[in-house]
Amino acid sequence: MLKEFRAFVMRGNVLDLAVAVIIGAAFGRIVTSLTDDILMPVIGKIFGGLDFSSYFLVMGPVPAALQGSSDYAALKKAGVPLLGYGEFVTVLVNFLIVAFIIFLVVRAANRAMSAFERGKAPAESAPEPADVALLREIRDELRRR
Fold this sequence. Notes:
By secondary structure, this protein is mostly helical. The protein has one domain: Non-ribosomal Peptide Synthetase Peptidyl Carrier Protein, Chain A (Orthogonal Bundle), CATH 1.10.1200. Helix content is 72%, strand content 3%. The protein is built from five helices and two strands. It has a two-stranded antiparallel sheet with strand order 1-2. The radius of gyration is 29 Å and the shape is elongated.
């Protein structure tokens, strides 16, 4: 069983998946930082606050020790039911950034593959049938006249 497991882990696609997960996690941290540290403060400033993720509605009783508190993390930790719409907007913007970047990567990869296939196609294509070649010559002759 250990040999089978080692063979499974050493296959190329499993190693590729592991690399993709590691790069994806690092990329996720970059996007999170971009969202939290650059975009959301600007959006928060536009909407009147510097910390957009701290927008929430209290949906239940607040403990006496936290009465009047506007610290989202502390209230959440205390078990106060909150509607954290600011945090949701932050996560939504984060998702849209990731989705757009993945779209750009896939689009670039598709264009590269298409260009590669176009460059490869003439060399691999079969010779043109005689009737098609004859029709091409007739067309070219008619254009010249």
